[in-house]
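WARN no homologs supplied; continuing
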Amino acid sequence: MKIALVNGERQAAQPSVSGECQSCGRPMIAKCGEQRVWHWAHQGQLMCDRWWENETEWHLNWKGVFPDAWREIVHTAADGTRHIADIKTEHGWVIEFQHSAIKPEERRSRDAFYGRIIWVVDGTRRKRDAAQFERAWIDGRAVGRNGIVRNLFVAESALLREWSSCQGPVLFDFGGSMLGWLLPGRHDDRVYVAQFPRVQMVHVLRTGIAEPGLSFDGLLAELRTNYEAHRRSR
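OK structure emitted
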């Protein structure tokens, strides 16, 4: 973890500093070696949040583009259940970075727990995923004149099959300048996908503004309207 409480204040790991977990209150040890990025670890026990996964450089690089105040925010449900969100923006969205495989039931639990959630998925974990996604994109049907959104066959990509039931936005990161943006809603055997510049998406998520006069929520609504109209016209 990057954040722990030190004297009641959120703080990154520093040498010879003791802290406590934001979620469970147990002691945390600052790990400040030369091989890995400095981080906190629970003292004498496993991570208290079963949804938490070991962080890779990919996780840390993504977290690093957002303000410190948005990172690792504890959420508490009405029944007292607590989980730590990777990022919680000031615009009300939770962003979860997913590198490892995740079971559908756990993903649905997180969707329900956080409500407004955006998934960012590491598309480089399996060697075949980037090529499969590219083939699905090439074979897809363009929606509108600009070609930003296409209608893709789910069966052509394992990532699309695994994530097509999500009701919120899913971003696939293949390590390049463009992100694959799976739009919410599967229709039979097809989904709608956009390709969006990484730099522009980071700006949108940080500011909540897609373009002058249009919020990220507004952009989602506009895209949904457009592809629903396209689906009905087929």
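The chain has two domains: 1-48, 50-233.
OK
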